[in-house]
């Protein structure tokens, strides 16, 4: 189901005008599509865009743009400032609801792993999976049940149970998640360093999820 998302048409196009637009809390963008006479210049609310990027950056959207009305689109490009990392421009593409799209979907691990209960360490190897399907069939997440995984075992792409109408061309032998053997007991200092590294890795993964938008429509 498409997520409602609002935008407004914009007429400002010079660099100075666009910078003023950004200072007001909006992000400029463009909507492309075969059914459009020409690309449509738009602006979206920065806070609403950030929420979209944090939660469902690859979702099917029902974009409402002024007199143009509502249309199915997907976010296909996010440009960021190289220093501040703030979003400075976005691209949307119209979607043909009868044609497959290629996009990314978040992988969500579920269940309490038997191996982890025995002291093993669960390590996710991929956080998103590239899929192919009709726009209306894009799942919110791909769930991976790890409850039966023992120490030394892993789950591969070939083991996934994808929703009806959803396929992937990712290597079937690609490891999704594995349970590593317990590591040696860490000192307090080593444990603190490991915690910092894990936090930084999680932050990098979240940022990658917000900016690594790959959708083909």
TrEMBL record:
InterPro entries xrefs: Rbsml_bL25/Gln-tRNA_synth_N, Ribosomal_bL25/Gln-tRNA_synth, Ribosomal_bL25_b-dom, Ribosomal_bL25_C, Ribosomal_bL25_long, Ribosomal_L25_dom, Ribosomal_uL5_bac-type
Gene3D superfamilies assigned: Ribosomal protein L25, beta domain (2.170.120.20), Ribosomal Protein L25, Chain P (2.40.240.10)
Residue spans of biased composition, Basic and acidic residues class: 196-217
GO cellular component: ribosome
Record-annotated Large ribosomal subunit protein bL25 L25 domain positions: 6-92
Location of the region described as Disordered in the Swiss-Prot/TrEMBL record: 190-217
Transmembrane segments: none
Key words of the record: Ribonucleoprotein, Ribosomal protein, RNA-binding, rRNA-binding
Lipoprotein is among the record's keywords: no
Residue ranges occupied by any Large ribosomal subunit protein bL25 beta domain in the UniProt entry: 100-183
Family stated for the protein in its record: Belongs to the bacterial ribosomal protein bL25 family. CTC subfamily.
Role: This is one of the proteins that binds to the 5S RNA in the ribosome where it forms part of the central protuberance.
The protein's assembly and partners: Part of the 50S ribosomal subunit; part of the 5S rRNA/L5/L18/L25 subcomplex. Contacts the 5S rRNA. Binds to the 5S rRNA independently of L5 and L18.
Protein name: Large ribosomal subunit protein bL25
Organism field: Paenibacillus aurantiacus
Gene: rplY
């Amino acid at each position: 189901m498409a997520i409602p998302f609002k935008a407004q048409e914009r007429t400002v196009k010079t660099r100075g005008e666009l910078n003023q637009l950004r200072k007001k809390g909006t992000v400029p963008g463009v909507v492309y599509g075969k059914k459009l006479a020409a690309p449509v210049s738009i602006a979206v609310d920065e806070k609403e865009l950030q929420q979209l990027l944090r939660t469902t950056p690859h979702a099917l959207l029902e974009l409402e743009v002024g007199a143009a009305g509502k249309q199915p689109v997907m976010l296909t490009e996010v440009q960021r400032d190289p220093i501040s990392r703030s979003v400075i421009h976005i691209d949307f593409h119209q979607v043909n609801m009868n044609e497959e799209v290629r996009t990314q979907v978040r992988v969500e691990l579920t269940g309490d792993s038997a191996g982890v209960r025995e002291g093993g360490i669960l390590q996710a190897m991929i956080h998103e999976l590239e899929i192919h399907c009709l726009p209306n069939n894009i799942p919110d997440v791909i769930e991976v049940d790890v409850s039966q995984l023992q120490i030394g075992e892993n789950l591969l792409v070939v083991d996934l149970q994808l929703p009806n109408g959803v396929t992937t061309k990712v290597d079937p032998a690609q490891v999704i998640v594995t349970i590593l053997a317990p590591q040696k007991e860490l000192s307090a200092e080593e444990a603190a360093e490991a915690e910092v590294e894990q936090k930084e890795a999680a932050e990098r993964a979240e940022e990658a999820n917000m900016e690594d938008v790959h959708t083909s429509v």
